[in-house]
Amino acid sequence: MEKKIYEEITKVFPAIEKFKDADLKEQVLKCWARALKEGSFKNLEDMPFSGEISETSLPSHINWVLEVALFMADLVEKRMGLSVNRDLLIASVLLHDLGKAFEYEKKGDGYVKSEIGKKFMHGFWGTHIALEQGVSQDLAHLISTHSKDSPTHPRLIEGIILHYADFAHADILRFQKGLETFLSLK
Predict the structure, then answer these.
(1) Integer Cα distance of 138 and 142 in angstroms
(2) Cα–Cα–Cα angle for 14, 79, 138, rounded to 5 degrees
């Protein structure tokens, strides 16, 4: 059963195959398997990016962010001479919105906040789930600090890359839909 779930997760998130660290790959798979087991969605593609932008699936958002983050990492290394831990970056992108799998539930034709979503920020809940699956302190830090709502900011280059790739996509989606962008919110 676990193998089948892992195959489904890998199909939706093909970057899982890029991990050099087998333990980290297993942790990411365990996190998403738990989300499918305990969250309100039994299929990854049914998870919305947000309640306001539900036509974009959460996996679509995560895969977009990953593509941009890897491009940014290439530039950071090539043009700035900084080293980026690719496994840590990939894991942080794949798990940064893990908490959203628990944050929303389907109601009628739309999505509403679940009880967990009403009580916890998705970055916090995703970090909680990831830590229970054995992720490192650095990875937990990146999950918890990716959002503008986090009380602290990323302290690792991978977190800076994640933050800007994530919010670029979020703001482009908001702009496309005619919503106020995060850039314009004060």
Answers:
(1) 6
(2) 50
Q: Is 110 exposed, middle or buried (0-12, 13-18, 19+ CB in 10 A)?
A: exposed
Span 99-150, pLDDT tens digits? 999 999 999 999 999 999 999 999 999 999 999 999 999 999 999 999 888 8
The answer to whether the CB of 142 falls within 8 A of the CB of 162 is yes
Question: How far apart are the C-alpha atoms of 170 and 179, rounded to whole Å?
Answer: 11
> What are residue 113's DSSP bridge partners?
104
Q: Provide the residue type at 42 as one letter.
A: K
Residue type, 5: I
For tokens 């539900």, what's the residue? 54
Integer CA distances (angstroms), 35 to 44, 66, 98, 163, 183, in order: 9, 19, 7, 22, 30
Separation between Cα atoms, residue 71 and residue 145, nearest integer Å = 21
Q: Render pLDDT for 64-108 as a digit per residue (tens, 0 to 9).
A: 999 999 999 999 999 999 999 999 999 999 999 999 999 999 999
The model carries a pTM of: 0.96
